[in-house]
Design brief:
Layout lengths: L4 E7 L3 E8 L4 E8 L2 H7 L7 E7 L4 H10 L4 E4 L1 H8 L7 H14 L10 H32 L10 H11 L5 H33 L2 H6 L7 H11 L10 H5 L4 E6 L2 E7 L5 H17 L5 H13 L1 H22 L9
Parallel strand pairs: 1-4, 4-5
Antiparallel strand pairs: 1-2, 2-3, 6-7
Helix pairs in contact: 5-7, 5-9, 7-9, 9-11, 11-13, 12-13
Length: 342
């Protein structure tokens, strides 16, 4: 019988703990290697021909290590963080060495849930979305800080458009203390720079969506705009990894938790597992569909009936879950949104 080996990697920024076990769980090698794909591959090179699985936990370095180690011919698996945490919690002492040993045993037993590693293009677009979101949040933080600071001196900016915010603030500072005026003008410069760069990233996002046929198809659904379409597309990455469209909503944490033990059996709130940004985007799209959009469709009618029976927030969650199912099915079928058949 051919020997079969399993490898566990506990990855940190500089060093990675490596553990190799055989099919019976016996530890064959434990060592540390630099967190570089070539060094990790060298550490397990003596067993590389017969390695069945190489496991590591999902974290910021995982996509890079997964891609590079696969290119070196190693069968790499990225394990879901919650499953990894629950499995390793039974250890008495938490060390990098023990974690690597525990991961290797998980690979041997098959007690893990595999994480889908996104493609290079999807990772790049996710960075675009996160950078745009960061700049917008910082822009709003600066603007709100200015409003709050000036209120302490009796200066009320009030309701004003973003384009006129700077001019309105400088106008109100006429005759104010020079020190206060200098500080506020510095903040206004930062605000202007953040807004300009945010607009550039948003324009890049819109161009990307315009050139993507899948995103354009998603945008035929009322309430789904460029940000929602690109967020969903990059999060799913490969639609064929879901066997059923209805499981997509559960993947992004939009289904209730279930707890059953003995005579106790109840459904809780939604699980909120998976990508929180996708969940937020789908919730906002559902809100836009029910509140702002006036186009008639079966989906909107169904959502409005839920509002009457279950309340606004629960209806939004249900419509967001339905949108996840609908977008995935449209992606697979290559069809646009049909209002009467939603």
């Amino acid at each position: 019988m051919m020997a079969e080996y399993h490898v566990g990697l506990d990855v940190s920024l500089d060093e990675t703990s490596v553990c190799v076990v055989d099919q019976d769980g016996k530890v064959l090698k434990e060592c540390k290697a630099a967190t570089e794909p070539a060094d990790i591959a060298l550490a397990i090179s003596a067993y590389a021909d017969d390695v069945a699985r190489v496991g590591l936990e999902a974290q910021s370095l995982s996509p890079w290590l997964y891609t590079e180690l696969q290119a070196l011919g190693l069968p790499v698996i990225v394990v879901e963080t919650q499953h990894m945490k629950a499995a390793l919690r039974a250890q008495r002492n938490k060390t990098d060495k023990n974690d690597a040993r525990g991961i290797a045993q998980m690979m041997r037993m098959g007690w893990f849930r595999r994480v889908h590693v996104k493609s290079h293009d999807s990772m790049q677009l996710r960075v675009l979305l996160s950078n745009r979101r960061l700049l917008k949040r910082k822009f709003l933080d600066v603007e709100n800080e200015l409003r709050g600071t000036l209120k302490a001196f009796g200066i009320k900016i009030g309701k004003v458009s973003r384009g006129r915010f700077e001019a309105r603030t400088i106008e109100l500072l006429d005759g104010a203390d020079p020190t206060l005026r200098g500080m506020v003008i510095s903040m206004l410069r930062v605000r202007r720079m953040l807004w300009d760069e945010c607009l550039k990233l948003h324009a890049l996002l819109v161009r990307t969506v315009r050139d993507d046929p899948v995103c354009r198809r998603f945008m035929t659904v009322p309430g789904v705009g460029p940000v929602v379409a690109l967020t969903f597309r990059t999060a799913v990455d490969d639609p064929h990894r879901f066997s059923r469209s209805r499981t997509v909503g559960a993947h992004f944490g939009l289904t209730p938790r279930k707890f059953q033990s003995g005579t106790i059996d109840y459904d809780g709130r939604i699980s909120k597992c998976g990508d929180g940004e996708v969940r937020t985007a789908l919730y906002e799209a559902a809100s836009s569909l029910l509140v702002r959009c006036k186009t008639s469709s079966e989906l909107r009618s169904w959502g409005l009936s839920l509002v009457k029976r279950r309340g606004h927030k629960k209806a939004l969650v249900a419509v967001a879950r339905k949108l996840a199912t609908l977008l995935h099915r449209m992606w697979l079928d290559g069809t646009d949104f049909r209002p009467a058949a939603a």
